Amino acid sequence: MKLNLRTRLTLILAVLVFFSCGLTGWLAVYRAKSVIEDEMLDQVKRISLHLDKKIEGDFEMIMARLGVINAAEGTKWQELKAELQRLVTAELVGSADEMGAAYHVEGRDWLVAVKEPPGGELFLRQLLRRVHQLENKNIWEEHLFTENGVQMIVRPLIRNDQIIGHVFVWRTIEPIENLVDKLKTEILLVFILTFVMGLAGVFWLSRALLTDVDKIKEGIQRLKFDLHSPLPKVGSELEEIAAAIETLSVSLLNLQEASKGLVASRYLDETLQRGLEMIERVFGAKYAAIFLYDEKADELSIKASIGLSREYVKTVRMKKGEGYSGRVMLTDLPSATDDLRRDERTVWVQMVRFEGIVSLLVVPLRGKGGLLGTIEVYTKHKHTFTPSEISLLSSLAHQIGLSVENAMLFEEMQTRAITDRLTGLYNQKQFYELLQSEIAAAQLYKKPLSLLMLDVDFFKQYNDTFGHPAGDRLLKEFARILVENVRPDDIVARYGGEEFAIILRETSLEQALDIAERIRQKVADSRFEGRLQQPSGRITCSIGIAQYPVHAKTLEDLVKRADEALYRAKYNGRNRVAYHLTFMDALLESLPAEEKNKLERLKTMITVINARDRYTFGHSERVMMLACKVGERMGLTAERLNLLQLAAYFHDIGKMEVTKEILCKEGDLTEAEWEQLKQHAVAGGAVVKTIPVLAEVALIIRHHHERYDGSGYPDGLAGDNIPLEARILAVVDAWDAMTSTRVFREAKGPEQALLEIREQSGKQFDPRIVEIFTALVEGGELNGPGSHQCRGHELRPL
Q1: Which residues contact 248 (CB under 8 A, 6 or more apart)?
Q2: How many CA atoms lie within 13 A of 784 on its CB side?
Q3: Catalytic one among 389, 438, 498, 696?
Q4: 498 catalytic, yes or no?
Q5: What is the mean pLDDT of residues 377-391?
Q6: Distance (Å, rounded) from C-alpha 371 to C-alpha 366?
Q7: How confident is the model at residue 710 (pLDDT cuts 50, 70, 90)?
Q8: Mean pLDDT to the nearest integer, 331-353
């Protein structure tokens, strides 16, 4: 039998209604069961928590009153049970048939129940064993068990971080069949109500659908006409509309695809390129350019283009008001021409002659903050741009402008994060990242890398004299000079304060010296504001150089070496260039080839001593610097200064023979320990003497602890019988020892140390050397950074 539409719809809706009724009834039963079980569980938890809090005082009170009870004492057991029952009786009022509770006391293994659950005490002890297993795994929390028709919570009783017992609270659970029986009247009512509402819905929906079907049939009858009558005009218009819709659909699809890429772009170059792709796909342009306006240069220039030659793109520059884009920047309105060949201005003649451009359309490129530039679209044939084309390109320019503005802001924020606000150079953080990258490249390609550290001389004095604004102007001008006097691939950064750094890629030490000297000379010749008030009558800078991998193998060491060279340049008089040259490097160069291996062993010994005694680390170089200062003031020849440097550097090498316990002992030395320590001068002289060319140096080391009055060691020499260089070492060694923190005392101040040296004049020290040393200290000539060699004197072969 064939069913009509009304019958089929009615049957479908009826099936859906009956199905919903059955589902509703089942959900009602399930929901009722869940609600009852949840209420039971909440009640059990609530009572167990309350009991846990309640027994905090009562349980301890009962235990104190009853005392220690053994399991065999029946009377006491009954008393305790009665007391415990009292604790929970009030909580179980009204629930006696359904709920119960019990206490378990650890140690005595008491189990006191207020109404036993199904299964009795045996069931409780089985649960207790399972709880103990969990607690042995450090799981101290409440445990929920549902079995034997009981829903039970077991909570540990914790006092002073120990479990002293457990409280059990349970409630019997009725079978689900009993719950259904109790709720069957409510469920039946819900089922009937749902069924009635479903039938009413079926009737209403079928009436509404059939009414709509009848209306549709009537409409079709009214719209019937002679399909064979000619409609050429309507057909033509419909075809045009369809074609326009198809074209618009393709354009919208292209716009959607291009917009995704444009919105996803974060960097300016990428955004400009995506913008041109959008113009090409949506507008159909084969030749186009995006101009951006540079406020500092006050000019428009092409930042991205399609179809134009590189030469033309590089040469085009326009001011505001010049050319079509320049006028658009002033008027903020689109501009177009159908034939550039009529315009005789140079830029357009060049465009027509070399690029073959004939027609031009320009629209403003605008962001939220204002005009950013323009977009130009070209054709190589005469073409009059329609209002719809102008409107479309303007719409595209609006979307591109917003993305360009966002990209410019993003790059500006990135630039701020890596550049110094005052000078515009890279900041210290970015300097370290770039230096690490350049070191990796130099290592990979086996190329040299040089690092310059620069410092403006007497900058603090300049700031104090002219103020911080003038100091900022000086730093900005100094930074400009640095950028102008390095190569395009070199990296200039502000390291901090008045200190700057330059990374020179693929640059040898000789090339770096030339660049540094050019910068130093340019700075010295510049006419800075306030230069005449500086100590030398001009602004100068000091420069230190270190090369990778010659002077250092790591980033940290390279910076350290360049910084050391910088401080040596400042110490030696400022306004000069110095490169890293360690004392031992210079010494190796000065020795004959056959002696170099022995010297390498001495270097190793110095390293070992430094590791054993942290005081010794740096002490030798400080003593060497101080000794050179005194020697220069006394007029020592270059040869004698050379000997003095070597003796100062190796004067403690004999400490290899002294145990670490003696060197680092915090208390007073015993007489035996003191005798062993005094032998380091003899041992040091003997070790150095193994290199024949250092024989005189060995003699100086042996006697640097002699006293001017003859009471020193090891040989008791006095006065001028002590080598002059040893007498100098005695003074500067004592000074550095007193002004340095030792394991057995704190460092003394310069004034106190100088007072003690002057008190020992003529006793421990040569009076003439004390007088010269005092003048150097009081004149502030010993406060500068240490130099690794005497000023004006290179180490020479001995």
Answers
A1: none
A2: 20
A3: 498
A4: yes
A5: 91
A6: 4
A7: very high
A8: 76
